[in-house]
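Annotators were shown the component list below and the corresponding predicted structure, then asked to write short factual statements about the assembly.
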Amino acid sequence: MTSAQTKKELTKEFKDVKYILTSSMRTKLLLAVYDNPKNLDELRNELKKPSATILHGLKELESINLMRKAQKYYELTSNGYLLTANMIKLIDNWYSLSKSEIFWNNHDLSDIPEEIIRNVYLLKNGEYISSTTSDLSIAFNRYIKLISKAKELTILLPIYSENHFKHIIDLLNKGKLKKLELIVSEEIYNSIKKNRLFEKELLENKKVNTTVTDKNFKIFLTYSEEFISLTLFFKDGHYDDSQILIAKDDDAKKWALSIIKLFER
Amino acid sequence: MYVNNGIDNEIRFLAQSEIRMKILSELNKCPDNVKGLVKSTKITYSSVSSNITKLEENNYIKKVDGIYYVDPMAKIYFKTLIDFKKSIEIIKNYNSFWDKHNLKLMSLDSMRNINDLKNCKLIETTPIDIYKTHNTIKKQLVKSKNVKAIFPYLHPEYPKLIEGILKNNGSVELILPKGIVKAILTPIDERLKRDATGRGKLKVYPVRDDLNLYLTLCDDTMSLGLFKNDGSFDQNRILISDDKKSYAWAEDLFKHVKHKVVL
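Structure shown to annotators:
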């Protein structure tokens, strides 16, 4: 038998997280009043459970100071609000991960700090697009379409790709693109420099601001006011142009900015 | 809306069992065999081994040459669960700070990133030191060169403290309720004030709405104070920290408030 002492310590360590997450009634109640206080009728309608069950759950949450009753309405206490915000973060994290497990699992994530991966809940509205065997360039074409609408772009660029450069130069010369922040490693920078056309149209372009990083990196991240996109490398070191993550909401932009911040001077 | 049943069940699979959570957190630190796990967790062999089997069946861990490893994806899942556990701890540890206090001016991000405050210290006044909170912040204001602050009320010492910073060629950025702007600024030397404003060293943002939050960013130290639900400022407790994460957290909150309420 596990000693009583060990059992006690284990129970104590995980008590709260277990108490909250193992009862679907308690979690549902917390989520139900997260946006607005609700009365018993409303809760009964929403959760489709008998009053007794709901009242029991509410009492439990009141007793640990997560919920309170004010004039027939149940609302979260400040502790309850903090806890529920973080519980939603947890649920969204799991949802985002399960939605995109293949994307994260297939790729080399070593250049994305673990802390930033743990904020994957910010990408919960993201869309994962894969090329197919009948159309190998779905991901690339979507990307080009997206950047062609942007006025300003920040690109963390880990690859030397003439195809990409030609499109970007086109957008700078003829398109809407007014400003490009280009973040590249020294290796990529030197490769661009060797091509006279790219040197002139990209590195010497007044609309382009180039930052050269000390180290190579394996994240192809694009940030603009309208969207963010991410492509990665396979674990064997090759760039994967077949899968792209695209997202357009503010949370996703926050996520992307947290990565860009790591590379900015 | 939020409850996706599949995910609910998966989270519950881990959260239900302290033993599974303990095994995962040990394996996360260091891959090990069953014997080693029995030793490091002090849980019986039979419990460890039956839960190992369950974790393996659910793809949380993999066995290679008798050693169990946490699957890379499972690691991320598990860590987000531990993050949640830590946020509960922070809520509990600073219970008197949050409980019955107004969080309306805090951004959703600042709540979701509450773990950044794990190295904060809760300073509370005591019957023999009833000005402990004020004096702690004052000490920092005196020695700081760059100060950003949200002062929701007037303390009679603030004008002098601000004047001191400006005299040392420091910079001050303040978010204040409209009603106290004059009272804070008037006592400060006129020329100093004009000069500092001209050089961008003194910025004052008056706010019309209720300012239910107290926040200071002094050089490397942050402090946070809240209002009680009854509308009064809680002078008896502040969170304070000089670690980088708390400071960055406070900086983001300052930006948020500036964006949200400044006229």
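Statements collected:
1. The domain at 5-83 of chain B is CATH 1.10.10.10 (Arc Repressor Mutant, subunit A).
2. Chain B has a mean pLDDT of 93.
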